[in-house]
Structure formats: C-alpha cells, structure tokens
Automatic annotation (TrEMBL):
This is Purine nucleoside phosphorylase. Signal peptide: none annotated. GO terms for biological process: nucleoside metabolic process. It comes from Desulfonauticus submarinus. Phosphate binds at S29, H60, R80, F81, H82, A112, S211. Its EC number is 2.4.2.1. Keywords: Glycosyltransferase, Transferase.
Length: 273
C-alpha cells in the first residue's frame, strides 16, 4: 500500500513536468523566500498531488517547485512534514521517495535550529557533519521497500564529505561564516529545557531542531548524496536560558535566509556540485 501511494504521486508528476530533476532542496522554517532565486517551470500545491501529505507548520508554504537553479534541474520542497504535526515517519520522507523516482540523486537539506554549541551565534549557518536521531522514530521501520534501498543501510557517512569540502571552499570564497557541527533531531513541538540542553550538548550535539534527520536516513537508504545546513535562529545557554517564541525564531530564519540563499545558489550552480 505504501509503495502504491508513492508511485501514484510519481506517475502524476511525471506527466506534468518536462525536465528530469537531479537535485532536490528541502527548505526549512522561514526559508521560503529562497524560491525567488529559481527559474520556475511549474509550481504545485502539495494538495494537488495525489496522496501527498499537506504541510501545516508555520513558515512552510506547502509547495513543490520544479525549476532550474544555477543551470541544474531542481525540485524545491517549500515546506516539510514533522512528527509534531502528527505525521508518521513514512509521511515525513514521502516527497523524497517521489523525488528519487523522478531522478534526483543529490539532496540539500536546510532547517532552522537552535545553537547548543556556546561558540556558535544566532544568525550563523552550520554545515551538518553528522546527526543524532533522538526522536525514537525511523522511516525504515516496517517492511523494507526494496526498490529504494537495502534492509540495513550503512550510516557511517550520511553527509557527503565531497560536498562538505566544496561547501567550505565556496564559503571561504564568499566570506560566509560556515560553522561545522552535529545536528540532533527531537520530536517537539515543545522547546528544550535547560537540563535537556545540557544533556544534548553532552551527547555531542551542536544544534537542535525538529526535522531533517529522518529525511537524511531515508535519503541515505536510497543512495542519495546529501548535504545539510542549519540556520541558527537562537542560542541555548542552559545557565542563562532566554525565553524565545515561534515568531522570533521565524524572524531570525528569514534574516539568515538571504545569506543562505546566495550561498546555495553558488553551491548548487558550481560545476563540481
């Protein structure tokens, strides 16, 4: 039943688009303005696509853009799905499985995250070098979808070393501060307490959020080359924890978006990507 749903969405989109996408980009909270940089062929509301989940989170438009970026054919997901919305792990990675069937081999994941590393500042961008899955969920649980990947995929190198090195090189050329660190995903929707912040930091996490990791697991399962970035929207210092709100987080994500958007344009448009 799961496989039939995915193929239904894939076949519907295949009839609607004329380009074969090679790169997929998932936009995090407050990052929707990035779509202004696209040479758009088609735009679909998620609600138009048969069997596709519908994004309900604030700051997520719920649209799929079929476009060109830096000379490459791309799919851009403006809006994703979260466990805290009540979606299953299958729903959360649904769009990426459809993207794989359409020909996507490279994936760019972005998110808005809280900085756990005291050396990082709000407004900076973090290159994700590894992740911790603290959700208690996994998109690969259940019958393995053999068409997409093996039963027990290796996770020793989820994020492409090649694309990380390229990202650091381009960041240096553009004079963009690009921190490096480990991202931890929690289920949400409540933000973390001071005690939880200390615990996650001791686990080795540098930034925290409520997305991305399940997507990365599914993408690795499908053999995609993955790169991920976090827009650091607030700084979590457990000994002097400041209250924050959804509005403040989204506003900082929007401010960081311009810098990240210009960076992604250079990265994806590079001939080495």
């Amino acid at each position: 039943m799961q496989k039939e749903k995915i193929f239904k969405s894939y076949k519907w989109l295949l009839k609607k688009i004329s380009i074969s996408p090679e790169v997929a980009i998932v936009l995090g909270s407050g990052l929707g303005e990035f779509t202004d940089k696209l040479d758009i062929e088609k735009v679909f509301d998620y609600s138009e696509i048969p069997e596709f989940p519908i994004s309900t989170a604030p700051g997520h438009a719920g649209k799929l853009f079929v476009a060109k970026l830096g000379g490459k054919n791309v799919l851009v997901f403006s809006g994703r799905f979260h466990l805290y919305e009540g979606y299953s792990p299958f729903d959360i990675v649904y769009g990426l499985r459809v993207a794989k069937l359409l020909g996507v081999s490279k994936l760019v994941l972005t998110n808005a995250a809280g900085a756990l590393n005291p050396l990082f500042e709000a407004g900076e961008i973090m290159l994700i070098t590894d992740h911790i899955n603290f959700t208690g969920e996994n998109p690969l649980v259940g019958r393995n979808l053999e068409e997409f990947g093996p039963r027990f995929p290796d996770m020793s190198r989820v994020y492409s070393r090649r694309l990380q090195n390229l990202s650091l090189e381009i960041a240096l050329e553009m004079k963009v501060v690009l921190q490096k660190g480990v991202y931890i995903q929690v289920k949400g929707p409540s933000l973390e307490t001071p005690a939880e912040t200390r615990a996650f930091r001791r686990l080795g996490a540098d930034a925290i959020g409520m997305s991305t990791v399940l997507e990365a697991i599914a993408a690795k399962h499908m053999g995609m080359e993955i790169i991920g970035f976090s827009c650091l929207t607030n700084k979590n210092l457990p000994d002097c924890m400041q209250e924050t709100s959804e509005e403040e987080i989204l506003e900082m994500a929007r401010k960081t978006n311009k810098r990240l958007g210009e960076f992604l344009l250079s990265l994806v448009g590079d001939v080495r990507f």
